[in-house]
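ok trying this again, last paste got cut off
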Amino acid sequence: MEPTMKRMPLAGALDALHRRRRDQVVVSTMTVILPWRDRDVTDRDLRCVGFMGGASTFGLGVALARPNVPVWVLDGDGSLAMQLGSLLTVAGATPRRFMHVVFHNGVYDTSGSQPILSEGRMSFTGLAEAAGYTKAVRFDDVESFDAALDELLEVDGPVLVELMTEPLRRDYVKPPVPTEKTPGPLAQDWQRVRDHLAASPAR
């Protein structure tokens, strides 16, 4: 990782998003799950755990099923790197109210902070542009992101926002294995979100 690369604190980026949270379905994954839940837990929150790299296509499924419901995907750089083909899938489907936020901290924070592949030599913004996203932008400070966010939310998607964030540098802690009595987070969330959307009038 480039030692002089400018990066923003994860907390500041999440705070900027939280201030705009209204009725969006938010799919969060990996490092961002816990800090996002510390700010905002609603009946429209889905935690993508158990299939690394699946957050964007999972969010796309929600967007296609309910095209009038805005969807945010809070993705990780290491996670997205596992499924780069999902950029083509999302771009090809052209979901209109879809914002894909990639927290690019340069490491696999959930497994011991190893550097992600090609760190310092690649750009998720560039990949999304080439894949056909309507708009793709990159920010390395909270102030610029916060100032641009309202306008980005008005763009017909899909939109990719790459946020250069500081790594948390956490030690690896093996997560508990779900059992039939304690289903994983996604299984816990999905029925609640599905029922909530079904009860909400289409707009």
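PB: full thing came through this time. The longest strand covers residues 98-104.
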